[in-house]
Write a structure and sequence with these properties.
Two copies of one chain form a homodimer.
Chain A lengths: L1 H15 L7 H26 L2 H8 L3 H7 L3 H22 L8 H18 L1 H10 L5 H25 L7 H15 L1 H5 L8 H15 L12
The structure holds a DNA duplex (30 and 30 nucleotides).
Chain lengths: ~220, ~220
Amino acid sequence: MQERLDKMQRRVSEHVLESASLDRDLADRKQQAIVEGASAVLFEKGFHGTSIRDIAAACGMSMGQLYHYISSKDDILYLMHTHTQEIWYQRLMEGGFDQISDPVERLAHALRLSMEFIYENRDLYLFIFTESKHLDREHLRVVLELDDKNVVGFYRGLLADIPGLPLSAEESEVASNLIEFISVFLPLRGWNLDSEKTREHVDFLIEFVFRGLRLELPLGWRAA
Amino acid sequence: MQERLDKMQRRVSEHVLESASLDRDLADRKQQAIVEGASAVLFEKGFHGTSIRDIAAACGMSMGQLYHYISSKDDILYLMHTHTQEIWYQRLMEGGFDQISDPVERLAHALRLSMEFIYENRDLYLFIFTESKHLDREHLRVVLELDDKNVVGFYRGLLADIPGLPLSAEESEVASNLIEFISVFLPLRGWNLDSEKTREHVDFLIEFVFRGLRLELPLGWRAA
DNA sequence: CGTAATTGAGCGAGCGCTCTGTCTATGAAT
DNA sequence: ATTCATAGACAGAGCGCTCGCTCAATTACG
């Protein structure tokens, strides 16, 4: 499982960096600093509304230094994307997701962990989902591939592990995509819902998904 | 029902036009022409990637003429939004939606009509959902209000009409928003689904929603 | 003193929007 | 019938500004 993440990380660096002579660790740390520093301004002003000067200032770097570690503004959006997938997967692992053997319980647990994580990082997810289509063709291709492989693919795998799932292959494919989509519902369209009741909303969404998939929720799932 | 649309339309014109002396019919026709002419370029290049010059050229107007009928670039996005709601509602009415008395059948029919319409206009919906948050504060407020009143509000009303719906008030509120969200799933995240099988996907989504709401689908709903 | 790291002024391009000059349709005056 | 005054529709050059990005100049360091 962890090697999947490592490969993802490696691919990011390869894609973003043109100069192979740069120290890989330093570059990774700097790119991490860029993502973390740029997040606040990006969430506030959006990608197009934020200039390179804004980002450089927010990261405590000069424009020149910034361009040592990225090669275009689009690279920053790309980094945000891979960063998002990384920390999401990390959270699943920290949440003990991979220690659950029953596949239905795994799905329930993964949904809860994901929805809570996504809600906590709602600014990030709102940003990712509304800005990513503005990437240039090449970056977009890679980002969509990553998403299909790592996120949709994650749910695809979970569904495939459930024996006797009452869905056709085609339906499972739609379902995998739909589950990812519903898991970002609260950041994307939940703005006129009472934010005090997020916990209940997550419960409802999970029940909704399970009923939609014709699955019984595991006993005592709310306590998990 | 129709007066609701009329009021919506009136509000658009009032909001967009500052000069009250302009002929209302001419203005409406020109604004219609702007929306229709601008759509293709906007879908292709996105709102930020499309300049006023592009839009003017695509509408067969000069920049000067364009600015006779709008007062800022944001007005165009606003027009696109209201236009979308108008044609969506129009389609529902043409589809004989309001002639169905049974509330559960109404919901099933509305979902099918909506999803098919949204899929046919997927470029428009992808555009609307990914670009609207870039509106300035005032335009955004109006657009979100319109959406909550006309679209979410539409589903809210449908759910309220179903006697003995096994959902709490809070759950119904989440569900109304979620239904709108799921109805735009195919344009927003269905890009790696087989476009030959859209019909089946819509069927699956409707079944999914009904199961999620704990509702039985009306008999023979597929033929409807 | 030489080399590497770092900077931010400057470049060319493109933006949203304005506004003045041009065109055209109309109709009163001759 | 012809001229001319007037007003509204229209065009697009130009304004002021900001953008992403580069690279000559400067600083820091061994």
